[in-house]
Every structure is written in C-alpha cells, then in structure tokens.
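User: Before I run my own analysis I want an independent prediction to cross-check against. Here's the chain; please return only the structure tokens and, at the end, one sentence I can use as a sanity check.
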Amino acid sequence: MVELVRCGVAMREVARRLGVSLLTVQRWVERAGEKRLERVDWTSRKTGARRAPNRTSSELELMIVNSREMLRVSSDLGEFGAVAIREALIASGTPTTPSIRTIGRVLARSGVLDRKVRVRRSPPPLGWYLPAVSEMRSELDSFDTVTGLVIRGGVEVEVLNGTSLHGGLITCWPSSAMTAAKVVEHLISHWKAFGCPGYAQFDNATIFQGPHQYQDVVGRVMRLCLQLGIVPVFAPPREPGFQASVESLNGRWQAKVWARFEHASLTQLRERSDRYVTAVRNRAVQRIERAPRRLSFPDHFDLDLQAHPKGTIIFIRRADPHGAVSVLGRLFSVSSQWPHRLVRTEVDLDLRRIRFFALRRSEPASQPLLIEHDYVLPRRRFRLRD
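Assistant: Structure tokens:
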C-alpha cells in the first residue's frame, strides 16, 4: 500500500482497492516515512505508550527492595512485609509513598518474596484409585445414606442414594429406617433393572460393612456384591473426594426434592423422589449410554447369606504413623516408609492373600505393590443381626 501511495495513488483509493481502512493506510505510510521500503521495520508494535505513565519508577522500586532487606536484617519486630515497608518509607520522608498493594506487586516483580507459590496440579481421573474404573473398562456405583430427616408429625426418614461414576445413573430410595436388609433389597432391584457394575463403593457405616466391634466381619451388603461378582469398595474414613459423586447427589436431592416441597407422608415423598430420579435419568441418557457396559443380573438369583464369601474386597485406607493399616478389625504392617499415606487394600478371599498398593493423587498411574500378607477368612455362620 505504501508503494501505491508513493506512485501517486490517493490513500482513499488504496484503502478501497485493498479492503482496509483509511487509518491503516495512513499508519503504514507514516511508519515508512522517507525510507526505502526494504529498510522499513514492518513488525507489529503494541499500541499505547512503551511504559505505563503510572508505573512505579525504577528508583522507588529499588528503594522498596532495599527497605525490605534492611528490615529483614535489623527490624526489632522481625517484620519486613509490605505494611512494614510502607511504614518505613513514610518514616524516612519519601515524598511519594506507594500503597501496600503496589509494594506487594513490586516485591513479587522483583522476585524477593520468600513465599512459595502453590503448585496447581490437574486432578486425577475419575476412579483413579481403581485402574479398571479410571481406564473406563468398568463402572463403579457409589452409595450413601441421608439421615436426620423428619416429616411433620414425627415420621423419620432415611434415604439411600446411589449414582454411577461414569454414567451418572442415579437411584434414590426414601425409607422410614434404612437397614442392611433394606439396602440389599434396593440394590437387587436397582441392579436387576440396569445391570451390575464392576465395583460398588460405600462408606464405612455398619449397614454397608457390618459391625465394627468384631474381626473378620463380612456383612450382608458385601456378601450380596461378592455373590453377584461385584467388587465391594470401602472409601477411607474422613477422606474427601472418594464419595464426592454420591455426596453431591445427596445435596441435590435434599435441595430439589426434600426442601422444595412440604411432604404429607412418606408415600408422597417417594412419589416426588421417583419423578426427580426419572427426570435426571432422562437428561443423562447419552452419558449413561457412553458409560462402560454393565453386566447382566443373573437369572434366578437367590442370596445365600450362609455361603462362605468368595472374591475380592477392596478397602481404601490411610496408613497410621507407623505405616500400618487396619482392615477387617486387624492391624497389618505395610511399610515404615509409607506413613500417613493412602493405600489400596485388596482382600483376595480365593487366594487367601491381602495385597497393599501405594496410592498417590499426584501420580495416579503409579500404584506399586508395597507388601502381601497371608489371610484366611474364618468359616462361621452368618448371624442375621450382622
């Protein structure tokens, strides 16, 4: 465009021919000046001033850094942050004293801060502590209960909620009192309708795991999972994140069903809950279809509580200060080099072994075997109150 202007073509005509604005032609002609075209710097430049007019001067920045070093060495209070530096500058009679935030930015720009910046790592994949789940080869259903709800008139309500990790297939079952027998009944009806997942995850409540005061207890819910070929998984106590999907469902159900209406009876609550569950499933159809394939529920299934358990049970646990892990009421030594760290404990009832794998959120793909222990589940009659 500069060459056309120099050949005598009007700037407006050049702009029209090239499809640019008149201002663009004027700017590049001004940039070229009287120089030969091959000697003109055609690189783009930022608009505006080369230096912000309100930027702190280099002399004042140096004074701020020097004041910090002086206070760090000689301050009786031992304070040398932005507040202390500003007070020192005021006391020294500095004509233009910057604000505390400006001093903080100058210190950060100068690289003299002692504070380490927190490293933000990407979250691990869903179900990272179970390789088959994280690799989308198997589905995991998480279950939890909501307690402490009361319908006007004194009717207590407990709700069993469940959701699949990858598919978002939810289920909600309000009941007057949730027991292990009711949990088993609801799990059977749910898995009959939609198929069995590879894993079923629970917290450590007694209705899921069984009584805690005895050793080697395999509760009713665990026995159901094992007989269906589902691996029961128990999340670590007081650990956030492992039950996040079902805990999120707990909150949504309470907000969208429980707190939204005034329920006259448990039957009415169940009807409203069923409508909510149906609506959520209809919205998540595509996600449910993309999830890992679920296994067919066996025909003519009959839960035998007296049958000796077979299969694998997984406990996610955190080692104690000595590197030991408590599983099934027994304490197992894992590794003195792994204190206060997460461990995946696989109780293989068929091979009569317990394997302990190291878990790291920062390296979810690395789950080395720490140690193995022999373990034999005692044969004893299942008591109906377990």
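Sanity check: Residues 113 and 276 are 53 Å apart (CA to CA).
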